[in-house]
Amino acid sequence: MRLGLAANRLHHATEDAALFRWLRASQAGIRELGLELHAVGRTHDAIAAAGMLAGHAGLKRYPYGREGGLMKLVAEVVGMEGDARTLDGAIYLIDPVDPSSIFPEAVALKRQCVIHGKPFISTVSSARDWIENERILAGLAPDPGADRLHAFESQTLAMIAHDAMKPQMLAFASEHYDLLSRFARRVATGTTGQRLNEMAWSRGWPQDTPWVHRFLSGPMGGDAQIADLVLERRCQRAVFFEDPHVARQHEADIQLLERAVTTVTDEAVCITSPAVAARWVAAARRRASMRA
């Protein structure tokens, strides 16, 4: 398995920066999985200088960003000639106030991951969660250090879907209703929330109790309301089914929510496509059975 890897300067500038916090928590799992990390130049050099992943043959160096390193990751998420130049997703630890985080290649990296149903991982918690899920799906024992990420009974889950993706969100929630019902609270924007509540009521959820707390519709500010929950550390996981093929009138609100997630990089897990969400659920179910 191969992932592209990049981190904005803030996230590798100090000994306790986000990149190193993630590696300290996950480097054993990276080695167990034999994961290849195709790292853009400055990110690779920071890992090497910190003495992390020493001797791990899967750490590959790409050019600096200004020399096209991030552009190469985008092309390889899409897929180049042969399996050796095809990535299975990307980790991009984003500093939301770094201008490079909205450069075309940075935006394209996420977009192509979403289009191709591959993980786009933009926070420390998301990266930690992904490693643990892949470990579980590979048959490895649960890592107690990841237990907090699976403590759904104390967490709030945001469920957000753009118009073309609402049927997929409804199907996902219906298929995995039992697991999603473990969360202490579920939130959504207007129309998505109403449809999810109707599904839950049809499944026997009490008719006088919403399964999902509805905020305003996205164009009316619902994304901003959920962003505030994230910033207050009152929402720990977001399942965000994005349609990358259409322009959106409330693009700024959507970006606000995405920036909120990356602002609390150690707290929020974000899942960006139905394929990645299904893999998370499979791992969560298996992990729960292993811990029972």
TrEMBL record:
Give the GO molecular function terms: methylglyoxal synthase activity
UniProt-listed Enzyme Commission number(s): 4.2.3.3
Question: Taking every annotated instance into account, which residue ranges of this chain make up the domain MGS-like?
Answer: 149-292
Gene3D superfamilies, from UniProt? Methylglyoxal synthase-like domain
Q: Which UniProt keywords apply?
A: Lyase
The record's listing under NCBIfam families reads: PRK05234.1 (NF003559)
* PANTHER family per record: METHYLGLYOXAL SYNTHASE
The family line of this record is: Belongs to the methylglyoxal synthase family.
The protein depicted here goes by the name Methylglyoxal synthase
Organism of origin: Pseudoxanthomonas kaohsiungensis
